[in-house]
Amino acid sequence: MGAPVTATGEYSHYLNEVDEPSSGFELDITPTISAQYVWLASGTGNLVPPKGAWPSWLADTIDDLLDWLNQREGWDSYSANRISPRAVSIAFQFLRGISHYGIPRPFITGDTDGGISSSWESDRYSVQVDFHANSIDVFYWDKYIDEQWEDRQRRCLVS
Amino acid sequence: MSNGKIANDAVLFRRITPSFVHWDGLQSAGIPQVPRQGFQDYPEQIARQRFNLPGACMSVAVQYILIDEGYDPEKLIIGYPGYGVAAINAGVMRTLESPTGANWTQGVMWNPTDDEPWHAVVFCQNGGKKTTGMQGAIAGTATWTILPNPPNESATAA
Fold this sequence. Notes:
The complex is a heterodimer.
Chain A: E1 40-41, E2 47-48, H1 58-69, H2 85-98, E3 107-110, E4 116-121, E5 125-131, E6 136-142, E7 147-153
Antiparallel strand pairs in A: 1-2, 3-4, 4-5, 5-6, 6-7
Helix pairs in contact in A: 1-2
Chain B: E1 11-16, H1 44-51, E2 58-62, H2 63-68, E3 84-89, H3 90-94, E4 106-110, E5 119-124, H4 132-141, E6 143-147, E7 156-157
Antiparallel strand pairs in B: 1-2, 1-3, 2-5, 3-6, 4-5, 6-7
């Protein structure tokens, strides 16, 4: 599946291994999404095969995820929960999988329940995928026609 | 404010962490969008334990009470370097709706504390937590009163 991803900074290891980061947290990387089988549908309805190489933004995104993992309770000044390691794991697996398809770098933030939020914005579209320990929330907005939908997937196993 | 009810024309302030701001997506004049992530509710257990409230809600500061107490919006970011303050309107919250006209109305309730007599909460009238769409709709009505700054910079007035 291409060259292994190496995170920059203090977490310079392959995130497909369970490791003990210096913060004391153990990342439980349990693959719930097999990227090999994640194919995206193009606007014409045809399946788009993965491009192969890791994008340049993936390592920076991994750093973002790990930074959020280190945030303390109340990181938003309003009693936000600490970020769940499982949410980070799920976010990483998903983002690594879709990174093969020319997706631009997502904007990564935490959410107050302890999840990870990844979002993409353009003049027309807004897409947000929120990863929690046991669910994934998806939000889509076409600003030109003001069409929105959002949904929660409680079982996020994709194979 | 009569009978403890916050007037519809009340300005409500919300403190926003700079980590919610997408610094790569600045609007004209270099001003960032008010992020929808800044309008998330407390975790429900926090709302119950900390404020003795029945469900999810988010904290705001009522401008005219803050002023009556002798403070300005800068008071809200003391101890939070780089944070911004966004302003929303109570009446707009009470009439919020989705793009399809669905009821997204928010309740606005004064909830003073010993330390913050200007404290109020905004909550979904239909119950539950604010959805991403609701957060976005609220952010769409918000304006910066104090701009946040990227990390390692101090906040500036909007």
